[in-house]
Amino acid sequence: MASGPHVIFVDTHINAMGNQFANERSAWEGLGATVELAQCSSEDEIIEGCKDAEILVYSGLYTPFTERVLSQLPKCQLIARFGIGMDSVDLDAATKYGIVVANAAEYCVPEVADHATALILSLARRVTMMDRWVRQGHWANAVGKTGLMPRLSTQSVGFVGFGRIARRAARNMENIFGTLLAYDPYVSQEQVQDYQVRMVSLDELLEQSDYVSVHTPLMPQTRGLIGAAQLAKMKPTAYIVNTSRGPVIDEPSLIAALQANQIAGAALDVFDPEPLVADSPLRAMDNVILTPHLAAYSEQAVQDLRAAVTATVSDVIQGYLPRHVMNPKVTPRRELRRR
What we know:
13 helices; 2 domains; single chain; alpha/beta
């Protein structure tokens, strides 16, 4: 009979994985845990279906772990994200109620960095635009349609947020582009002295960059960080790329800026809301590249993600703090040792 904690895996997406969840279940049950799956998407469903859980694992971007929900989970010791972004968890409330919140912070760093790099290079060399024009029979006047393309070594890339993913992307680009800029209020120039990047204010970055690449997590202070006023500071020849979270950029303002030729174009892997609505003007714009929130995906990334989540939950079952705690000031309901 199981003697360990009660683990509930919350998400319709994970339920759809069927037997693919078997390895995680086997690992946790091998440590004495009781494991079950639960389909919960609303606050009421989580409160009702998970009130007895000591460990909750979830994968959905929008699974609502609000203060109301967290206050009704009296046994919960850990909420583990099957992913990176934590924007649907009230971290302050989790800390208040002694619930440790952890994610798989490192699992898709190469993939998202490479995807951002690919989008920037596709914009810079007009790859998707030229593909479209060739298919439409515009071979003869392609140069006229692309305009004069500057040499990349004369161009600048600005990173909004300079954490793991942006740093990896900077490594990709440091021998391609002439100037790399970054804005991150939590990072100093001294902390990134090994990178060929200059830390600047957000206004400076927007004014000076030919390509603005957004890498900040979604938090209350970053929601709508790039709005009409910020887009107005960008060069009319500049492009913006977003592989972080859709709401970091105010989408109506971005659409208006593109329609007014205020900026040259965009490449987006994330949207607000998702999926991208069928009648979005973005779908009809030749100067916009759209991908379906798959920047993080690769075969290896999925393997890394599953291994990281398995380790996070296994640590707590065995009485240890997990590696990537997102609310480090928490006093856990159950004493957890550091490894």
